[in-house]
Structure formats: structure tokens, C-alpha cells
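Memo to structure team: turn this sequence into C-alpha cells by end of day. - J.P.
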Amino acid sequence: MTELYKYIGSDNDVPAGDIGVGAREIGYMYGQYKRIRGGNEAGVLTGKGILYGGNLARTEATGYGVVYFVNEMLKSKGLDFEGSTVVVSGSGNVSIYAIQKATQLGAKVVACSDSNGYIYDPDGIKFETVKRLKEVERKRIKEYVKEHPSAVYSEGQPKHMVNSM
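Reply from structure team:
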């Protein structure tokens, strides 16, 4: 941020968190930005906590949006999430809330991943477990199988994906 602050502002680029950069990291960067600039430009970074200009539904918004978009695509073909089986790539903010929303719409999400590997749970991925592991405890997705014996963890990418790249 010590270098980046020169190039951003509420009317310029607005950087956002990405893989490994969540509200905590954005909060640190925003604090440094405010210290350097001596002001409180709330729109300079997205993903901030509510106490310093963030949005109440920001964490869930993108994951929900992905599912709402896919749901509209399915509807255009006479389909919907009800009774479907879903795989979600990732287990960060977007993926966690895509899992939640797809499940709320009647889907069974059976797999998700992180950069080390993926879990498959034929009984359906448990949103609360993934959310706690990733957002609170900041653990890897492989920890999921310790709490859900029906789940299987596989290191790396699925073999069919490795061969097709």
C-alpha cells in the first residue's frame, strides 16, 4: 500500500481482495492507506469491514450472484437447482456462499476444493463446516473429512483435469 496509494482513490482504480486476501488483509491495507493519505475515502478498496465503510452483504454477494446467474441460465432451459448435484470450485468467500445458496435452492453440493486438493462428500457438503474451517479457523479443506466420515479428500487435481490441461 505504501507504493500503491499513489495510483488509487475513490475515483480511480478500486482494488479488491482475491485468493488469500480477505477482509483482514484489506483492513490492514486500508489502515495504511488512511495513515498515508490522512483521510477516510471509503470507496478506495472493496471488501472492507463494516466499521470502516464496508458493505453488510459484501462477503456473500459474489457467491450468491454466481448461483443466481446459473439459476437463470438453467431456467432458460426449463431446469433449476432443485434436485441437482453440484460441484463448486474453490472454498473461499465466493465458493462458500455459492455452496450455501445452491443448497438453499435445493441442490446437493458434493465437492469443493482449495489449492492443495478437493473433498467429495456424497451426503452433501456441509456449508457451516466449510465456513468455519476457512473463515474462522483458516484451515485447509482436507480438515473437513475429520468431521464428516462419508467425505473423501484427494490431494491435487482430479486426474481427468490434469490430463486435459
